[in-house]
Amino acid sequence: xxxxxxxxxxxxxxxxxxxxxxxxxxxxxxxxxxxxxxxxxxxxxxxxxxxxxxxxxxxxxxxxxxxxxxxxxxxxxxxxxxxxxxxxxxxxxxxxxxxxxxxxxxxxxxxxxx
Length: 114
Description:
Elements: H1 11-28, E1 30-34, H2 35-53, H3 57-64, H4 70-83, E2 92-99, E3 106-112
Helix pairs in contact: 1-2, 2-4
């Protein structure tokens, strides 16, 4: 089944969750979540790092429309995106950590590659 994963949520709830998780990833460098969520977060995070590599008003507005905190947008444009200027994609890494205690959901850590 092609397309995005629904993650058991309506489209607006899913978008809000992904916005929050991508913002948290940019803010802290890594997060622990389920494998399927990590794969969705990876797609969005890498997209906006690529947008941020081209530092102009249009790309800043595009990122501000998705990332929920202005200080994280400043960090993305001033620190994160310039560190990947010579890299064509592959800005994040997903490391599987094993099943979650309680419901045995497969867990993973998604982090920004240094």
